[in-house]
Amino acid sequence: MNQLSDDAVMSRVKDGQVEMLAILFERYHVRIFNFFLRLSNDRPLSEDLAQELFFRILKYRHTYRGESAYSSWMYQIARNVHIDHLRRRHADTPLEELWEKEPSTPEATPAQRAESNQEAALLNRALARLPLRKREVLLLSRFQDLSYQEIAGLFECSVEAVKVLVHRAVKDLRKNFLELKGGLS
Amino acid sequence: MNCQEIKGKIVDCLSGGLAPTDHAAFDQHLASCGSCRRELDELNETWSRLGILAQETPGPGLRAGFYKMLESYKEGLEGKRAPRWLRNLARFFTLRLAQPALRAVAAAVLVAVGFAAGFWTQAQRLRTPARPMVMAGEAQNLHREIDGLRQQVSLSLLERDSAADRLKAVSLTAEIREPDPAMLQALLDTLDNDPSVGVRLATVDALYLFADQPRVREALNLSLEKQTSPLVQIAVIDMLVALREKRAAAALHRLLGDRSLLPEVRERARSGISRLT
Predict the structure, then answer these.
(1) What ipTM did this prediction achieve?
(2) Does A90 contact chain B (CB < 8 Å)?
(3) Contacts of A110 (CB under 8 A, 6+ apart)
């Protein structure tokens, strides 16, 4: 059963074999959790968002058409779940602003400062300083194995625009990382 | 390739997607442009460094919560999982029918199925030019008859004391093509008054199929204020938002005026308003 493609499994879920969703959960929940975690830096919230994602897959299973890869469809829902969360949390801020502006990252805690020599901790903080749109595109291309074509579909823009965004995101990440490493934070 | 074109290719190179046909021109430009070479090195280093971020493991609560949710969902949909009307009817016949009236309805369904099979078989035998027109009419009549029988079965089951039976009734309505006013009214009454949250939730889903009828949309709007279960409140809100029912914004505003509203429902209502306005 585990040899079935994602599309084949999702088609069965759509046809009413909802228990088959467990296969997709086992395939994707760690990756999805990490996607939300890198976006939010909040473990309990990321678990809640992952849970909400799989609930929505069940609830809106009839909208699955199988025209694009299952993962693209799933990440579209994941983005919506995250956007809805942002709308709830920042009801007074326009969504566009949330996407584009640099987040106000809190000062490093003593524990974080103690481990600041660890490259991973610095990189996480550098990532958290990226505006949401850049962080999202970087996570999808670097960690979620989505092609630029698929990301363009999610963002409803051209492949070239995605490449420009990835280019800028990596560049800004490097700048943030070097600043933090140099003790400029 | 110029420096501007190379930027896009650098991004391809990072993800390992540089087209083989671009390799030669890419390498040629880098060999002669120190600035682009440096940029590639820097970006490549950062891209590779991201690899040190280990994938984290979610807590056991996520898996436990998922399977619990899946189980609840399955239970809530029990009966809907078999979409074919024949399967639904077959399941109905396996019920322990306690009431003579229900047995009579069940018998009528069997008779109707028999007639349907008869008509179709006859149609296969008689392939005269005039026959297809007649067949289309007959088939339509049969669909109407079967719809009517399904509605009778549903209405009977909706009156039963057992929540499981009422859930079956709601599930059966998914197979009805054109519900008559009495059937729709029974569903709307169930949405507002059924004592079981599970039945009311299933009814919200069932009404989605008939949401093209203004009467159903209107009733969903009005039902918002009548619901007391947060689960049903959220389901109705989601449904109205999914239907892009603009008038629901006013109903959601009224709902927000309820001080006893749970925070989760309040958030969903606010989110619904922002999507609808």
Answers:
(1) 0.83
(2) no
(3) none
